[in-house]
UniProtKB/TrEMBL annotation, chains A, B, C:
Record protein name field: palmitoyl-CoA hydrolase
UniProt organism field: Urocynchramus pylzowi
Subcellular location, principal: cytoplasm
Pfam families, per the entry: 4HBT
Organism lineage string: Eukaryota, Metazoa, Chordata, Craniata, Vertebrata
Domain of life: Eukaryota
EC number: 3.1.2.2
Residues covered by region (Disordered): 295-324
Length: 324, 324, 324
């Protein structure tokens, strides 16, 4: 679809959240279609996880987004989908790859939302494809267990914070989950959640560096818990790390099922977003260093540095591999 | 959240209706949460009334709106909520108060929408807070009875009206109530109604003075009757009074439950909006005087003058009090 | 309502699809109201057909659209509605007619969606009005049978197409039908479908001529089949014909009820859109000629030429009649 003014920031760059939402919609469609392709209990595919995704180049208002999706692996109860986003300037005809993403879906019964159904297996062209898919499946399973443990943290307000401290840029928003946010099962689309997360992360980044910012990448996101229609969700973000030219922001989503259900507020999702600051010509600008004050902030900064260096090393290894 | 191009007029000023909608969403969330805080029948808080609110300074595209809400009084069956809106330029970090509003909600049972539930009482820091709240409660109760009587009026089309007459600028729009306009109970959010009312009032004001206009204040609004999903609502506005630099517009909302229910069209809400005209530099401009023709129009003009002078006197009294 | 940035293209011209959506909303409201005007089974009017409509002049951001609707004929099971759209510049007060459209609706029972109810007859001022209405009714009935047969075609992707060929500009989008797209019966509003069709047609036109384009007219559209909530719809467009200054694009809508229903993908709607290319001053520009390659493309080009010449002849006849 064509990118509209409301999809973009003041500088005309489309929000990463808009792109994540389109990616998730494509993934939900292809995996729901696949899981219903054999006669049996009707179901809706729910997003369980998005793998780390890089935003290779920013999109602009008026460009057309081409989203294509393909199922790359099926386990007994989950579907792996590869989604590619190409942006096309329809006036010049120029096209470029904007995003590649990998998503995991789980089919839930339309009649009983707590029942996970079986996934019809796909055919692989080569045996190695199945083996590689299985390896990815095992890896993400492990990683999901890990983030589940990290989920206890909360963000507290700070009075009169100094510029460039964590408290200075931390932000949160609340959103009442309405019908248009939800799937046929009455649960929030994963894409809607990701769009809100990107919105908060973008506010944190802009508050910190006070320039035009764009999403550079999103770390793997795990959707541990569904969020029901009528919930209030609180999306909170705080900066955890800065390199010379990038900022890492941790975002939490808490759901508050305050009507109709005797249940406590719970952590539904958390993730790391990386932002860069762009000059008017679209070049990356230096970013003010994050000032850490508490022990927790210093620890999180070091952890963020670890993720940054790991990603950098991985990218260099890939480039060397590509150059061989 | 960040203000988008669709939230604003051509001059980049955010519509008052967008701000009213955010205020009401915040009020609905906090009061619904409070009314469900004790075990008992689940409920949804429905907007009963918004007190007069002033728009202290216009917001612009790209600014972030910070909305905070607090419960200030509870009667047996209603909740009073104070909502503050701060606008923040995230690039400069500058913040200012945009709005302060007081809203009254009533908890309706999720199982039986016609049943008003009891509100859990709040604790007051000082006895005077409870007494002042009670006084506000009694005052609004009286005022709600009064507007109920005024509600019989209708707006008729005028052929070939002269510029600056009432008929020249009067306007109306219709809207089919869809699922995304409604609460869990299937009734229109008060904030959605107020946004439509501001849209019509803005069109009336722009037709009259043909310049860039912004909402300056909204008089108390009483929500006498709920509006159900599937209704068509007609929102009509006509100018009632002009001072040198302001315009008062009366707005009616009529609901037409034309499907599924054997019921006549009825008046659901009515209110007065005050608009000012702004120059390119954001200074208030003189406004052409409203030409009244009929006896009714002259009477409404005088009544509007009364409200204008009363508000002016109240504001001067507050400023003197503040100066002491 | 006021036209917003998201309603328009980059040049500030409001999308034809936005206008079609407003027209259909007005038609659905007036015909649903009429069909429920007598005691009996409650119903919702579903769009069956839109007659050919011309976009007489483009609307711009900030203008107000005035939509008025009137019932002009009723048969036993259908309602004909005339809708007029006027655009008004509220700053200058200038008004002009933007569109005139004729729509046909059929009342479906709210309790049993497959049951078509009877329409209360309207009163005609003159006997000729009824006769002319009956003639229009018979004509559209014939035409609906014809398009039903044409509906088998599909659009296949082309690898590395040459500029200005059919394959070069053909486009498609998918959309997951959500609650806010649907009527009370849980089926997609005809207006939502037409807005998506116009979006795809606009992308095809822009890809072909790489300039600012606007919708000039839409041929009669028949809605053969309803589309249910939860379906995925694929909207595909391909260019069929170019004259010196216009482009004809054929658009198909296919619905895929992949959840909850054991049914194949089916063709729900198809139509022809005509676009023109505009200079910065709003004058029509010459359009590159469409290069046809296959026999089918050549045949469709000739058929498009037939429609183009027929419309041109009809318009000239009308102008001569008006001049007499």
């Amino acid at each position: 679809r064509i990118m509209r003014p409301d999809d973009a920031n003041i500088a005309g760059n489309v929000h990463g959240g808009t792109i994540l939402k389109m990616i998730e919609e494509a993934g939900a469609i292809i995996s729901t279609r696949h899981c219903n392709s054999q006669a049996g209990e009707p179901c809706v595919a729910a997003l369980a996880r998005v793998e780390r995704t890089d935003f290779l180049s920013p999109m602009c208002i008026g460009e057309v987004a081409n989203v294509s999706a393909e199922i790359s692996y099926t386990s007994r109860h989950s579907v792996e989908v590869q989604v590619n986003v190409m942006s096309e300037n329809i006036l010049t005809g120029a096209k470029r790859v904007t995003n590649k993403a990998t998503l995991w879906y789980v089919p839930l019964s339309l009649k009983n939302v707590n029942k996970v159904l079986e996934v019809p297996p796909i055919q692989y062209a080569r045996k190695e494809q199945e083996d590689e898919g299985k390896k990815r499946y095992e890896e993400q399973k492990l990683d999901r267990l890990e983030t589940k443990q990290r989920n206890g943290d909360v963000i507290l307000p700070v009075i009169n914070p100094e510029p460039h401290t964590v408290g200075y840029s931390q932000s949160s928003l609340i959103h009442l989950v309405g019908p248009s946010d939800c799937t046929l099962l009455g649960f929030v689309h994963g894409g809607v959640t990701m769009k809100l997360m990107d919105e908060v992360a973008g506010i944190v980044a802009a508050r910190h560096c006070k320039t035009n910012i764009v999403t550079a990448s999103v770390d793997a996101i795990n959707f541990h818990e569904k969020i029901k229609k009528g919930c209030v969700i609180t999306v909170s973000g705080r900066m955890t790390f800065t390199s010379n030219k990038s900022m890492e922001i941790e975002v939490f989503v808490d759901a508050d099922p305050f009507v109709d259900e005797p249940r406590e507020r719970y952590r539904a999702v958390s993730a790391f977003f990386t932002y860069v600051s762009l000059s008017k010509e679209g070049k990356p600008l230096p970013v003010p260093q994050l000032l850490t004050e508490t022990e927790d902030e210093k620890r999180r900064f070091e952890e963020g540095k670890g993720r940054y260096l790991q990603t950098k090393a991985k990218r260099q290894a890939q480039m060397q591999q590509a150059a061989q």
